[in-house]
Design a protein that fits this description.
This protein is an alpha+beta fold and 321 residues long. 36% of the residues lie in helices and 10% in strands. It contains 10 helices and 7 strands. Helix 6 packs across helix 7. It is globular and about 60 Å long.
């Protein structure tokens, strides 16, 4: 478990080109990443670092979750106000962190930038005032601490990698954006390295990423199979129309996905499709093979779930069950 001590006063009808079957999968879930980091231990969680602090708040950052959904979830738990997070995003520069985007992105500035895991914060609680939601000051401290922890984890991964991405030379922020896409595309959290290799190969060749979950991020809904009308959306996140990466990450991601983008695997693949019935990714070097894989995956889906479910909008879903 990770602890954040707030008693400290200073704070340093279409087949998607890549993932041909955009289906209901990849449920949001918690990963035990915090247990991998020796700084965050159960012992540290159990022993309050400041005995004067009497308020303890537990919260989670979920794998594959969008920051707006994280914010809504914590607001429903009466931990913080989304309005406060959005205000801070528009006011504070967070200049210490090179990987955060400009203020114009508002709440999306924090997209993908929190470490996944369980966290505990400790707060002084005045006996005269029973606090429910965090104040804006304490919300800022929480956000700052999460960004610090994320930076520490990313740097730890980078120090262990060769960081050889060939001619692309992606910046840290670009790798973060790509890692978030890899996280959502690597359905059931498999084949991170091969999925990352496909996107690297496409970027090197100047081919559009054609990522379903990236487009769904802008659409605001999920459907098992995207329609041509979906692909006409005018948005910087529509990587079916636009070349290169979207302006921000699209979800919180794992250390495995970031590791895969920090030291990309060499492959000759340019396409992949996930068969939701077999729970397996199928990679291809050329489009004809990929198209056949996509047709098989679609037919398997229809056989199991029915044809009527192919194009149904799943409101509130984001490339997930």
């Amino acid at each position: 478990m990770s602890t954040i001590d707030f008693s400290f006063k200073s704070f340093k009808a279409y087949f998607c080109i890549v993932a041909a079957v955009c289906c209901i999968q990849c449920s949001l879930f918690q990963t035990p990443e915090s247990k991998k980091d020796p700084q965050y231990t159960n012992k540290e969680f159990q022993n309050n670092p400041n005995p004067k602090v009497i308020r303890e708040i537990n919260f989670k950052v979920l794998l594959g979750e969008r920051v707006k959904d994280w914010c809504k979830r914590l607001e429903s738990q009466k931990i913080l106000k989304c309005e406060a997070v959005q205000t801070i995003a528009g006011l504070e520069s967070f200049s210490k962190f090179s990987f955060i985007g400009p203020k114009k992105y508002s709440l999306s500035r924090f997209e993908g930038l929190f470490p996944v895991g369980d966290f505990t914060i400790y707060l002084d609680k005045s006996p005269q005032k029973q606090l429910v939601f965090l104040s804006q000051t304490d919300t800022y401290k929480l956000l700052y601490s999460l960004l610090e922890k994320k930076e520490q984890r990313l740097q730890a991964i980078i120090s262990q990698k060769k960081n050889n991405d060939g001619t692309l030379k992606l910046s840290l922020r670009q790798k973060i954006i790509l890692a978030s896409i890899v996280e959502k595309e690597a359905v059931s959290n498999q084949d991170y390295e091969l999925v990352a290799s496909v996107f690297y190969n496409r970027l090197k060749k100047g081919i559009r990423l054609a990522s379903c979950p990236t487009l769904e991020y802008a659409l605001g809904y999920h459907r098992p199979f995207l329609l041509y009308s979906d692909l006409k959306l005018k948005s910087p996140y529509n990587v079916y129309k636009n070349f290169g990466l979207p302006p921000t990450p699209i979800s919180f991601f794992s250390e495995d996905s970031f590791g895969a983008t920090s030291e990309p695997k060499m492959s000759q693949y340019y396409f992949f499709v996930y068969d939701w019935t077999k729970k397996e990714l199928f990679f291809a070097k050329d489009y004809d093979v990929h198209k056949q894989n996509a047709i098989k995956a679609r037919n398997n889906y229809v056989k199991k779930y029915g044809k009527n479910s192919l194009y149904q909008i799943q409101a509130g879903k984001f490339y997930e069950h």
